[in-house]
Amino acid sequence: MVIMQLGILMDYWGDFSMNAWSVHIHYWTGTLWYLYLIIQPYYAVHGQMKKHRTNGIIGMFIAGAVTLTALSMLHRDIETAHRAAELADQFGPFKPWFFYGVICVEIIMILAFGYAVVKSILHRKELENHSWWLISSVFIIMFPALARGIQNVWIMIYGFSVDTDIMTPLYLTSFIIIGMTIWASYKYGRIKHPATYLAISVNLVTCLIMPLGKSESIQAFLESMIKG
Q1: Angle between helices 127-141 and 49-72 in degrees, nearest 10
Q2: Largest CA distance in the chain
Q3: Interhelix angle 127-141/21-45, nearest 10 degrees
């Protein structure tokens, strides 16, 4: 929770009034999701199972909101790619391909997040499976927030110019999250759990932003599917 909030701090709060409505909704539903993953185990281990189950139903609604608001923001990335092509000087190192690549990995993250939530529902009577599928969702969706934070710090250090390396901080973010995933799964004996494999795989895919974003066929597909 703390790492996610620190990552998004400057990007969200720095231009709070300029953010689109969908950004605000996605931020607050995502924050609520993290809070639910903190309070739900507390209820479960303190004998408040009735409250745990009731909040669990509400939590699934929040998970759906996280998923749908993330999908609703994809067209914003398409528009940003267009502006990056038209106003190249203002976007510096951020070329249109970067935003197409971000869309690709975000779609994968959204699908993986939804899958993890559904699996937690299917295994709701199996405590260890249920809980670990939900915990894995943290590592599945952490990348966008943390990557923005690390990328902002990187730009503060190395400057904002057409030659600034914007991918290295993203690779660093991926491996930080993978390290956290491995540490948590080792601590709770879930190294070989499918949810662990899913979280690691998603964060490895984020390293493909450049080749995915530069693919003209992928760009054309995204342009044809994601309309405003």
Answers
A1: 30
A2: 59
A3: 150
End-to-end Cα, the chain, rounded Å: 32
* Enclosing H/E stretch for 182: helix 168-187
**Predicted model pTM:** 0.90
Q: Which amino acid is at 101?
A: G
Q: Which two tokens stand for residue 100?
A: 């197409």
Q: What are the boundaries of each domain within the chain?
A: 2-225
Burial 117-155 (b: 16+ CB within 10 A, else e): bebbeebeeeeebbbbbbbbbbbbbbbbbbbbbbbbebb
Residues 6+ apart with CB under 8 A from 207: 170, 171, 174
Dump strand ranges (E) for 93-133.
none
How do the pLDDT tens digits run along the chain, 228 residues long?
A: 888 888 887 777 877 888 788 888 888 998 999 998 998 888 888 888 888 889 889 999 999 999 998 998 899 999 999 999 999 999 999 999 999 999 999 999 999 999 999 999 999 889 889 999 999 999 999 999 999 899 999 999 999 999 999 999 999 999 999 999 999 999 999 999 999 999 999 999 999 999 999 999 999 999 999 986
Structure tokens at 92: 């510096």
Query: If we measure between CA atoms, which residue out of 148, 215, 220, 142 comes closest to residue 184?
Result: 142
